[in-house]
Specification:
The chain has 195 residues and is of the alpha+beta class. Helix content is 19%, strand content 42%. Strands 1, 2, 3, 4, 5, 6, 7, 8, 9, 10 and 11 form an eleven-stranded antiparallel sheet that branches. Strand 1 and strand 2 form a beta hairpin. The chain contains four helices and eleven strands; from the N terminus they run H-E-E-E-H-H-E-E-E-H-E-E-E-E-E. It starts with a helix and ends in a 7-residue tail after the last strand.
Length: 195
């Protein structure tokens, strides 16, 4: 909870250049997401109680009741796929939503965005996927798709909002791009988010 104490406790700090994601031209560092998880994010942000890391879980349970018949069209570097599904996450880093490692292989300096999506699935499979994502162990689960690219476009058959780094950026359609090595940051020398 104390950022000064946290930084002081890191033995080796180094300066690194990191990539910056853009959603319709607006910058983000972490994960842009749309779908069930975006709705969960919205409900979590609107929660009246301070639930800490359980805020996203609360939002997710509420969103489960409302998610129906959504079809996404996702274009990654010109390759298009259309599928009924639950979410699409586009990560420059791997973690969001109070500890979900949704894009566990993302590196902040590889010049690529990781795209993880969950297609048609039962509510049980959705819950199991999100629980597995706390450890980053969901990429091999049924219904999960994982690709990388430099330009990602997302459309849906229903009005949905796209979120990035926990903030609502606006309605779909959305285009995500990457600006390589555009931000200089101070990080622990042993950080695992670099290639």
């Amino acid at each position: 909870m104390d950022p000064v104490e946290t930084v002081a406790s890191i033995s080796t700090l180094v300066v690194r250049d990191v990539d910056l994601g853009l959603v319709n031209g607006r910058p983000y560092f972490g994960v842009a997401n749309v779908g069930f998880d975006g709705l969960a994010n919205q409900y979590g942000n609107d929660a009246k109680l301070n639930l800490g890391s359980f805020t996203y879980l609360y939002g997710g349970l509420k969103a489960l009741r409302e998610w129906k018949n959504v079809t996404f069209t996702v274009v990654v570097d010109g390759q298009e796929s259309t599928f009924p599904g639950w979410f699409v996450a586009v990560g420059n880093v791997g973690q969001y939503g109070g500890g979900l490692h949704i894009c566990p292989e993302a590196k902040v300096n590889d010049g690529l965005l990781d795209v993880v999506s969950l297609g048609e699935a039962s509510i049980f499979r959705v819950v199991a996927t999100f629980l597995a994502s706390f450890r980053g162990g969901h990429l091999q689960r049924p219904g999960i798709s994982f690709v990388r690219g430099k330009e990602i476009r997302i459309h849906a058959n229903k009005p949905l909002s796209i979120f990035a780094d926990g903030e609502m950026l606006g309605p779909l359609p959305a285009t995500m791009t990457i600006e390589q090595a555009s931000v200089r940051v101070l990080v622990p020398g042993n950080s695992s988010v670099f290639q």
